[in-house]
Structures
1.
Amino acid sequence: MSLSKNILRHMTGVAGATALILATSSLTGTLTTTARAADELHIGFVGVTSGPAAAWGTSNKRSMETRADWLNETGGVEIGGKKYKIVIDSFDDQKDPKLAIEGINQMISKGVHYVVGPNTDDGASAVRPDAEAKGVIYFPYAFPKELYTKPAKNAVLGMIANYQSGPAIFKWLKDNEKLQTLAMIAANESDALSQRDGGMAAAKAAGLKVVSGTVTYQSDTTDFAPILTPVIKSKPGAIYLAGVSPAHAPRIIKVGRELGFKGRFIATTGMDAKVLKEGAGDAANGFISVGGASTPELASPMMKEFVTRYTKKFGEYNDESNTKVYALDYILETLKANPKAMKDVNEFKKTIDSFSANNPFVNGGDKPNMKMRYVGMSSFGQKRQIFVPMVINEYRDGDFKTLFVGQAD
Amino acid sequence: MERFPSNPNLPSPQRGNLSNLSRFVQESRPTWPWLGTVFALILLFFVIPDFIASMRPEKQGLIYYQFTQIALLSIAAAGVWLTFYIGRINIGQGALCLVGAYVSAIVQVKLDVSYWLTIPLAGIFCVLVGIVIGWPILRLRGVYFAMITLILTEVAKLVVLNFPIVTNGARGITNIPLPEAVTLFGFTILPEFTADNNRMYFYFLSMFVMVLTFIALFRLVHSRIGRLCKSLQQNEELASSLGVNLVLLRLIPFCISCFMGGVAGALAAGVQHNVGPSIFTVQDSVNYMLYCFMGGLGNLFGPLVGTVILRMGWNYLTAAGDYQLLFYAIALIILMLIIPNGVMSLSPVRIYQRVVGWLGNRRPTLNTVPHNRKS
Amino acid sequence: METILEVNEVSRKFGGLVAVNGVSFTVKKGEILSVIGPNGAGKSTLFKLISSFMPTSSGNVTFRKERISGLAPHIVARKGVVRTFQETTIFRNMTVRETVIVAHHLRSRANLVGYYFGTHLARKDEREFGESADEILAFLNLTAMAHEQASNLPHGHLRALGIAMGLATNPVILLLDEPFAGMNHEETMRAVEMVRSLRDNRGLTVLLVEHDMPAVMKISDRIVVLNFGQKIAEGTPQEIQQNPAVIEAYLGTADESIGI
Amino acid sequence: MEQVVVNGLFSGAQYSLIALGLTLIFGLMNVLNFAHGQMYVLGGLVTYTIVTFGFGFIPPDAFTIFGIDFIFPIALICAGMVLAILGALFEKLLFRTVIRRSKRDESTMLLAAATAFLLDASLLLIFGEKLHSVPDLVDGIISTDLEPVFPAIPFSDSFNLPYYKLLLGVIAFVMILLFVAGMRFTRPGRAMRALAQDRMAAQLMGVNVGRYTMIGFAVGAMLAGMTGGLLLAASGGIQATEGGAKSILAFEMIMLGGAGVTGGAIAGGFILGMMQSVGHSFLGNFTDLVIFAALVVFLSIRPQGLMGKPWG
């Protein structure tokens, strides 16, 4: 990382923002919001990019910005015979549902119909009424099933949910490694706890015995030895980290190994290999997590270029972005398939059922089972989830290796 | 009665037009609340909605929502201000808001009670909570009270998470129905809230409650209770020696504060149609305190002004993108350096006094010849 | 004359230290009684014990045959035993008049709810308190400063304000904590006159704790002398001035400080 | 149980260090420094930057002498210095002005919160949202390999402690001792203690209040920074955004021990560390709730905490 370059970049950024603020205060608010070019396509992002949970939203927003810049550089996106420049309107909800609602209303007021986010369960639930009433399709990174099953209609799950990847991972471990027992830990927060409950159900379905399922930690914890001691004492075969943040995972893994735990750690969220390497080193070997499509076997040249562009733009890549690269392309591809959806989200919903396009981010993205499409029939009873290959990764010596690739339907 | 002879040695305090003015303002107070209320009602219920109605339809929801948020946050902040008024720094209002929101949601969903009833119900429940908590902890002062209330917010969250039988735990309570219409003898007293109009109706509801809150608070502060609270704020021991029942007089404002927190929570539950453990967090508790400081602790409209400034300011700074928090922080620091006592310490009267004082010092009479710019 | 306050064998220990040790005396209605003693004799502690700002370790204080030690300070005040403070303890951000009106708390007939909604009784109370406050301020010669912030008052007037607050509660017995401290001779003499006039005009009983011997000798009907937490003498000013134990206690400088 | 005790002691040592700086600033200025956690994070990230990248043209491995790597202690000292300067600037430019001009002491809370926001925002912008970690200082682990150490005693179980944690524990302990000794035996330390006890009396005794308040703030910030550096190594890394929560944790500790008292901060830290350690082993997901509730009950019975003077 080049710290000085980063600081320099922010200095120019601050100067730019100051100019912007001064400019908007000298003009009237209505002038600046209405005066926008007609051939711009605005896509919203509402999520947390500051405060303790900033990690969740930052990688999300940055992937969108990288992809948008890239598309604009190549002349924009052609929808219905017209070229559009992609603009990302972002809103920082600070993980506060009240602000998330405000964010979605901001988007509505700007005429933005497609929003990525929010990143938390509470936020995603909170924006639902407005999104449905005012015609916004949103792509939350939150797992509650109520958001996607009927009568909910406007949320599209932007990734693989833990109740989809969990059973697959547990089954694989049971079949291939004779896993019998499992322990779980979760942060004392709604997202993490509901993921733990999901994991619990998945473990039961897979026939695993949960030997320790009640241990939770405060999200400000940095010393995990006291928390892991009773978990490891219960002698589990593997430990499931429910909804654990990318910053906590390496610490938990490291402490777990120091306390003598030999089994696997499992997470159903995206992780960053570099952080794992720096934070836990060899202790993280064997750690299973759900990845996107940047494993060497799967990543298409386009995905590789995306990573390069992201790295160039923001200084360093975040592997978590692998799972978050898709949402923008899904929106754009669906709009291409049905240009009427630009103004009317009901058209978008109609298109969902039949939509299919080549997936540019994975090798073999043109094969029928790898194509971009909407899924979720078995989990939600309606197609309210984007299809992404369920890549189950294993961390080994600084890199993720694909353990197996599954599918969510 | 025999008069005690006056002491010529003691300096007689300066008495000029400044004191006369401040006395005038003090003593003429009882007449202007009515004017103020009428003005506020016209502004909030006619001028602003009329202005919003002139906007693009897509934008209206946002503006209504922003005003609604300001209203309900300032209701909670008013409670915090009241605890400041008895000399207690309260960083636990978020806990009460959370409790209020959950009470409203649970009673609606599980017991099928009308939303309208749950608003006072949430307030009353929070008063009970306030009595139980306030009784022991109100003995604490200064940062000790502040810290213990800060912990309370965290406790409230953990209680919600750890007792899923009542609270639905981490999943929260979703799909709270919109308030129904209330009719009496065939007249619709309260209209039905629908997906299309609820932003506007919630605006009216929360503004109404806000106006009520501040009227109630105004009355409180300018009644004898207010003076007693103020005496508590400044010297509890002395107040006690004058026969003031400290335990009771600390508890009453605290319970009112809790009531406001509960009502704000119930309103939020209605506005959001769902509640989860993170709708009010430690950050909210700290924010309420900041609103009070920003507005000024010396004036009861301080929390309202503070909420408007900080909340609008934050929204406005969305334009700064990644640098939003940075700009916000810098703005706060600068404001703090310029007006450390809050915006309301810059009352027009005070500024007028300054000007008059300045004029009075520089030019003894207004009829003197204009003098050069030597000063 | 009727005995209204009785201090019975009152003691107070702080850890191993005995600050007040078995002190007894009585106060009669309408008299001015002073408690004196060298520094550290336990005067201030005794004062807090009587006003119930501090619990006694043993012994008790009765007011009109009713035990008051152990009660909350505000209840003691309600019964008519009201103290003023030694330091310049005031409500800093209130005006003088406001302070005195607040101090009328004990006289209120309406309850808090009544005050909130401004019932007839409450408004009557308010009016009466205002009038009474003006009267007290006039009596203590504070009228000119009625609308000043209390924190802006000069030193001597602050003490007067303290007494004004005490008066406003309509006490039976007023406990004054070093009312003459920090005053020059002339001011002291005026204050002495004032305390006298309180008793003469308002029929108050006054118990005061004081350092200033000349003032005490001038003002008191009776004097109680403490030393090392124990009562060593009690009597009229003349008796005290001639008491060998007292002279002993004030050691060496006896002549000067007792003002013989 | 041995493991639980060791965990508790190790957490306690970390917590005590975090609480010490906070309590110093509180004792001196009556300022509840909301930015303490952010200062701690800044210290950790400065340490991280120096350990990982060295000083610009000097690479980090240039500090290896006789096979011993000195970059970590050097980085730690640098972090302390950076934070001390920052703390002094904060005090001189911001807090002093506001304290002088505001009517109420509590107004500084808004300023403290604002500085916390400022640091939070800058840290996130400069260092990014990821976790940053440094390699272990030493390798190896003391381990009893899943056999109880004292099989005869009930509750006895296995026991693992990596050497680097032992080393950091010792460093933390030495830092606490140095701090306490410094406060007790040096001139500025005594002056600061006098200030914390009675501002007015200290002023009358000729203590330069302005100067020592600034030094105190700087020392408090320095402690926060060095603690950040230590904890970077002790807890597997540091993240730019975790400061706010740490401040609140530190508040809890100084409340428990008694605000403004050095001994209280140390005791509060160790007690909280031990409570968490024991709690997690026996109470499951109710641990934090029970600890918080116990804290509320304890403080309402004993408002000044374990060792505090009543009303600070």
2.
Amino acid sequence: MPLLSLIIFVPWVGALLLAALPRIGDGAARVLTLIASLSTLALGLVALASFHPAAPGFQFVEQHDWIRSLNVHYHLGLDGMSLLLVLLTGIVSPAALLASWKQARSPRYFGLLFLALQGAALGVFLALDFFHWFIFWELSLVPAFFLIKLWGGPGAARAAYQFFIYTLAGSAFMLLGFAAIFAATGTLDFTQLARLAADGLLVEKLAAVSGFWPQAVFLGVLLGLAVKVPLFPFHTWLPPAYAEAPVGVSMFLTGVMSKMGVYGFLRILWPLFPAHLHAASGWLLCLALGGVVFGAFAAMRQTDLKRMVAYSSVNHLSYCLLALFAVSYSTGRIGFTVPASIAAFAGTLLQMFNHGLSAAALFLCVGILESRSGGRRGLGDFGGVRTAAPVFAGLCGITMFSSLGLPGLNGFVGEFLIFRGVFGLAPCTATIATLGLLATALFLLTFWQRVFHGPRAGAASREFRDVAGIELVALVPLVALMFLFGVLPHLLTNLFNPLVTSWVSHINPVVTTAQLPLP
Amino acid sequence: MTAALILIALLILGSTAVAMSLRNLIHSALLLVLSWMGIAAFYLWAGAEFVAFAQVLVYAGAVSMIVLFAVLLTRRSRADLSIAPASLRRAVAGVLAGGATAGVLTLAVLRTNLQIAPSAAPTVTVQQLGLELIGPQVASVLVVGVILTVALLGAVVLAASDRNDGKEDAP
Amino acid sequence: MTLSVQHLWLIPALPLLAAAIGALTPSGGRTLAASAAIAAMVAAFVLSCCALVAALADPTANLTYNFTWFDLGTGAVRLGWLLNPLTAFMCVMVTFVGTLIFVFSLGYMHDDENFTRFFCFLSLFAAAMLGIVVSNSLLFLFVSWELVGLASYLLIGFWFQKPEAAAAAKKAFITTRIGDLGLLLGMVWLYHARGTLLFFDGGAGVLEPASLTALMVSTLSCGLAVSTAISLLIFCGAVGKSGQFPLHVWLPDAMEGPTPVSALIHAATMVAAGVFLIARIYPLMEADYHHHNLPIHALTVVAFIGAITALMGALIAVAQNDIKRVLAFSTVSQLGFMMLAIGVGSWVAAIFHLLTHAFFKALLFLGAGSVIHAAHHEQDMRKLGGLSGPMRVTFLTFAVGMMALAGVPFLFSGFWSKEAILHAAHAWDVSHIPLYFGLTAVVLTAFYMTRLVAETFFGKPRSHAAGLAHENPAVMTVPLVILAACAILLSLLAWPTPWLQHQLDPQAHTEPGGLSLMMLSIVLVALGLGAGWALYGRLLRTNASAPDPLAAALPRLHAFLAARMMFDELYAATFGRLSNGLAALADGLDRYVWGGLVNLVARLGQFGGLVNREADEDGLNAGFDAVSRKVRSVGQIYSRAQTGETHGYLRVIALGFVVLVLLVMLGGVR
Amino acid sequence: MNTLQLCLLISSALFCIGLAGALSRTNTILVLLGIELMLNAANLNFIAFWRFNPAPLPATGVIFVIFAIAVAAAEAAVGLALVIAIYRHQQNIRLQDATRLKG
């Protein structure tokens, strides 16, 4: 059974069905969308059941000739990292749909675009050939653009254009980079390219064309991924896009799409250009640190709750990059140790997953607030919500503390491992990065205090419904998973332990001894 | 061998030339059927039986029927069937162009040193053809199938009578 | 009956279970939530006693049970439980005091609409604290540590409708988190250096000799031993949690929570955690002590921070009017004493003081709560007064607590634990400054406690609420009586034989406490008591607005102390402004610099388009227009050939073909 | 002159007859038939070359002719449908009258 193809294409089939049924009722369209979206979780669990973490390489591989003249294969594969992200998509997408359940305006088109987006994201996580990887990567932009523009808030059009153009510009550089790689090596398969890179042949072949090419290609790919993650200071598209998007789309954007960039870093940039990454990692480390610190402090300053959560996303994702760059930075230097690198990578993967859960849930909470206040979501538009809606306050509080990295909830383990790794590899960086932790606590607690505590004010001074029904169905599983993965992180770590170990064992110190200066 | 070829050639060329110059459209069409049969005979002579049968089926059978239908559908009276050849100028110009082309082609054929196979005619069985068609040529077969379908649909759409056509297209 | 170390997790698990029950109980299920919480605490107390029996069977042994939490790469992250006398004594104290506070809360919170949630949070608080105590891993300790922070946040902000309570909760969380960041870094460093965070692991733990030697031997570029650096970082956590200078600012504000919470925070759980942590990792703190080439020793820092805190807390307490705030600053001061004790090398004295302090501080807070409850939430002691009559039990028990805290000799436990600390400080060979600070604090403690009792209980009621006060029901007074009894009986642990000392640390040499020092401290206590009585007992204020005699004598100093030495203002002016500035900077960078850059690029693109258009219109297009007009006219000529006549086309094609073939044949174009 | 050349000459003649017919007649149907004849002439060439090729590829010419016949049939169908459409439009099928598409 072509499991991975099913995972990717079932949402698209759902989208096609919706497209083919123009007279479908609103309710039926919603249910159909939800079922198609839930398929990812179901199939992801099937993959989980027969997944062997200890087996090396990719599993459930599907490889077929596609365009023989271009040496393009239809190549799908799944390893621990992909599985983690597929499961995350499976969890976040239905929750996002449920969050947008009350979406009044044409749920059929909404569902159609959403499913297209979901399938594209899954394709990015499973594709192993740049050709269709890039197709999926770009295809994910189109539905996201329309979802933001058509269903978003008042500033949505501008935000959507900014999002689209910015990320498209980034990926254009990446495309050029890969065109160069193809011209030099004749293949676009990630595994083959990684093997070439491990033997040092990739850079050699690129350099054979022109001495400037390896650097240019590296920078192009880096730029494309950095915009997507986003790496500070390429993040300015993110806050408006996340803030203006409808709540479900914000959840998907932050929960799944922001992982695509980190995934790209781990799947493409790092395996293909270890030496260049190493050479640039000093600067990149500073940028990631900037994201950690500035992201958190900028969030402190926001009065729009969604923008605040969006900045917290910048902060949290920068931790992932911080860990990766720290490993890259220290390879071949004195500070390098295997356990620290393993911890850094494991922390990155955990953080990717956990941030997906927490940030999506946080957006959901803000969305619920927004729905109660008639679309307003300023820090000053609320007060004393905890009195009015205690259950909601409790669930939102758990989400908030999870995002803040409280032990016992999911966020902690990842952040601890990242700090443990980064401290072992680049101690000063880790020390400065704790500022980010502090600022995160500051702005989240400020949010909590202003919105939930104090006397009832603003929107909460009128009638204010507690969470119920669909909202509860969307929020409670996320919260339950926060507890689950906070207490039992081995459910996740067992999936990628061998993978992470092999990554670290394949770090080739010889590659990094050649100090390649950036142009 | 050659004699048979010359006979076939005479049949083809003669019937065609007459068909092209007759006034009566029905007669022309019927003579063309004869010409197509002659071509089929040529195929048989050359050893391509399958093509010969296809020629008979498609041209002598199908195309001729369509032609006849078209002729019958596009006339208003019996007089329409006989069509005078166009102006002499046009006819002369046409024959001149055809003759020039013929001269050029004949020259080209005669001046080119063409080697021919000493051996007997290559044989190709229908089975071989079928294997070839669904094997290496399957994509082309599919494309041709699509073309035929589209052509059929297009023909139906074009020919389907629509009462409002005249009004809409009126300038 | 004993409790084996494998089952030690039951002690924190029971309150945690009760917390879960409380969380899931609807607000109507008061009885269920409260009974679950109290039953869990009682059960945990019984288990703790069993654990104590097990631990005392061999006081030198560190019984451990370690297990894998999750695999990481090829290794594993391991946690564990540790049972030794320190654990056991702490468990017993926390569960015992906790139980009494829980019972007291039954009465105190009786009218609160969020009764069930209160017990849920209390149980969580106790569970987290017990988690700290039983942990054999710094990681699990940290986990529980943060949960303590969470529980304190929830409880301090329990009356979250009050903006002050919400702000105080946030302040407590943030301030302690600043310290926790140090702890996190220290922990991460320790993990990195040793590859494990288990305290005891059959020779491989971080508190065992091999590890200590390794940590002590390696030094940083600045000359500091790694162990010193790690110790100091971990100490940051304790500074935050235990309200040490300079992170003590959250503790007085934490009074915004309900009084039983204050009792729990100040006596048994939160602030004790910091002292406990330092006592737990004492071998690590002490590792650099005998290494003389180092610029600084971790314990020295601890001792001075403790001494400063002890003196500062006592000084500020003198000028506070809120009954709970006085007690809060006295807690700060006493915690300073404990840190001082650890710093001068006697963690046993610190733990002894921690235990006795837990009892009498719980007693004092609950007594204050009793007063506040009776006086309809009037906390300003200038408006109280004359409560000794109507509130007999509260008064007597409170007096016991006050004398224990002030260190009235012989009968009260506080005296013995404080003596132990002073003796240790006296024996410290580095400096005597901590001793002098401590002695000053002793005088001040006796002074402000006398003032507190005198103003609250003596004289006439100075407000309507105080006049209506009457004794509380038994559910609130019985815990007071029990705690008062304990505050006295705990003296037996130290006298006539230093039993506790032997149990905790059998190898420790017991200092033959100089009699002169004991006499000195007795004199000082008497001095404090006398001064307090002279200023506040004899000249009882007659109404609430009468000026404070001390304020009249030293107005500026008093105002400074009353404003809590302006720490809040200082922090607001420095760190607060710094972080706001950083936030504004980050936001501004985003909005104007990065966003501006992006917009600039976009504008440049637009501008390019504009320039292009203009240039096109005037320059290029004019030429193009001319050319294209030409082309158009030529095209019109040529288009005449496009007659639409099919024959014509066909003819041209045929002739073209002929010409082409002729060209090829005749011209020899190949 | 060998047999192959003879065949080519025959097909050339057929082609030219078709061409002359298509050029000189005004009836659209006859023009179409002329074009069909030209196609047939091309087919004759295919078969001839296939038949007399010194190193014949198996069935290539035959396959080509089969496809050509298929396409020619499609063309005939569409062409005659067009004729009918034109007729309906301008009430005759004189080719020189159908010049509405001129540029």
3.
Amino acid sequence: MKRIIQLAAGIALSAGAAAAEVAPGDVVFGEYGEVVESLTGVAGDPEAGRAVMNKGSGNCVACHQVTELEEVYPFHGEVGPSLDYVGERWTEADLRGIVVNAKNVFPDTMMPAFYKVDGFNRLGDGFTGKAKEGPATPLLTAQQIEDVIAYLMTLQ
Amino acid sequence: MKKALLKSAICAAALGGFAHAAAADESASLVINGELEIVTEAPAPAHLDGALRTVYSGWVFRSDETQVMQMDDFDNPGMIFVESGMADWNTAEGTEGKSCADCHGDAEESMREVRAVYPKWNDEAEEVRTLQMQINACRTEQMGAEALKTDAGSMLNMEAYISSVGRGTIVNVAVDGPAQAAWEQGRDLYYTRTGQLDLSCANCHEQNYGNMIRADHLSQGQINGFPTYRLKNAKLNGVQGRFKGCVRDTMAETYSPGSPEFVALELYVASRGNGLSVEGPSVRN
Amino acid sequence: MAENVTPRVRVPRSAAAGETITIKTLISHPMESGQRKDSDGNPIPRSIINRFTCEFNGETVIDVQLEPAISTNPYFEFESLVPEAGTFVFTWYDDDGSVYTESKDIAIA
Amino acid sequence: MKLTRRATLLMAMGTAAAAVLPFRASAAAEDAIATFTGGATVGAGGLTLTAPEIAENGNTVPISVDAPGAVSIAIFAVGNPTPDVAIFNFGALSGSQSASTRIRLAGTQDVVAVAKMADGSFVKASQEVKVTIGGCGG
């Protein structure tokens, strides 16, 4: 969590340079919850996105199985669907929409919104159990989401 | 996105979430010390309205090695704390100079049916009381002793002792009558999503029990085995402390052990296990 | 010093002469490894049971050297010969110098 | 055992690393084993090590060793910061040269048992124990 906060702070500092970045409240969703525009305008790095899949970051493998990751991050969850071939089944815009806020696509899903800062019930300060003072920090940064999307698109 | 694709995706998600909820190991049977038979699987109580067909003790979701640790009291480290609770039961405390035993005699007889029916409405106090609240009411009102801290040390020892003598009795928490309002409050909390991860109890423990979340085998979150000795922290854990840990892990502001919300939630979750045996102190991961 | 350290043993009450019996032992002890830090980041000093022995009528059954990788509340299960009636003596040695003992008699049936 | 979030994370990372690299005893583990054997050659056979393939929690992992005719059996967790776990020395009245206990494993790794036999020779057995990673929390 600390790392996410630091990253977010870093982004805030370089706000001028990252003028192209879309804030969580400004994301434009399509009719089916897809997000066509890149959140940063900077191409995602699949290698960096691969690292985000693990615990301590996106923790995607807590719920999703990815054969390609079994060796490096063992023990995958079964709560969500397998992500094998996810890059064939979905477009980049679809995947971006699902990672940003899956509930726009699947209203009852258990999947958390990774780029959302409002509308929470009893928002906590990370995993401390205490109330969060001030606005939420998205679970992943805009660039981390672009990186994850780039990685997911390699799963073909 | 094509509409057909979307539909099939929703279908896949639904499958992942519901139909896929793997059956627990229905063949495992728990007999403690070679003689005490424990009901770890029972038809779901009617008040669940079909949300579950069968209720399972958390024991059936654990690995063979963890299961075995609960099958013999010598192998169950939770019994260390039962011994402390037993000693406290017989120790006079407070301004009245009385022990639990002075009023209640032999707990193996007087307390046998107690754990199974708590949390329970108390007419005089006009509130739903957890077993821990009742222990403290006894201490402060009858013994003139100080209240013990909820879900901590001596309190968990006493709760574990009272649970241990009730092992094998069938959980039968009242959900109607004067307890109904608290029960409904607990039910609402159970289904309310919290925190930045936006998860409810039901997301994991009703819709996904039997599935793995990373390497954790999700149970139904039944509390008939509490207090429970967790391998993770090598000590007894109380129900409401466990609730707090779960809510915290949704990245939410938690309620506190002893709060009206958690009392209501404990009543509701206990009632989901009506039909299972009292099992505490159990051994879990 | 570790608090509430209580040894427990399970030994059959009787055995046939020359029989092999199973013994279980458990002692409540935190087994503080010395590798953990408190909430202020200061190392918590090591404090473990470092040795456990079981003797029968003065003869050694088992003598165990424990390291911090033994879990909280150390548990042992092992087997002993019972050549005659007598007394098992169990001894746990704590880093802090404390010694905990327990004994159990066994009869020949 | 109260682990800090950071420690838990480090443990999880350790597990991941252990899973990628082919097993190789750390220098510390090799030293610990050599201390027990005095550097003697270590054979195989005659020693049974029983440990779970997957441990639900690395804090409390049940294991058993059995080596008929052994004088002593040492257990090592080769992936722990300190590999030594325990040494069982069997006396004249030991009913069998076997014992069970519960140990701590700081992540997925090989558990190694080395038995010293009555004739002074040594045998070894090892088994990988995968320590699980929880899904919840940061």
